[in-house]
Amino acid sequence: MNKNISKEALNAINKKTGKPITENAVKKLASTVKPSTLQSETQLRQLIKQVSAMANVPVSEATISEIVGAVKKSGMNPSNMEALMKLMLKK
Q: What's the chain's Rg over C-alpha atoms?
């Protein structure tokens, strides 16, 4: 997996949140994600809440449930964080 976050992804995050989030903050959070994180609904919900807190953007329980369902339905490769970020940025 590429350890560098593309400038486009970081710009998209900052544009979507309206808050300056650093590459190091994203890397720190991403380093806590393991393949099992995306398999466990509890861990996935926790990750979504952490991202929400980092971006200072509230996420409703309904939206969290929708994201969890989309991740599980997609069978997303846990090592592909870029795909997960794109999914979350659509919300």
A: 12
| Tokens (6 digits) for 84 | 């997960």
Distances (CA, A) of 13 to 22, 36, 40, 46: 10, 24, 24, 19
Q: What's the pLDDT tens digit per position in 46-91? A: 988 988 888 777 889 999 998 888 888 776 665 566 666 666 666 5
From residue 69, alpha-carbon distances to 25, 62, 80, 83 in Å are: 26, 11, 17, 15
* φ and ψ at residue 34, rounded to 5 degrees: -120, 165
The position carrying tokens 């846990």 is 78
| Residue with token string 């720190």 | 28
Question: 0.90 cut: is pTM over it?
Answer: no
Which tokens is 89 given?
């940025």
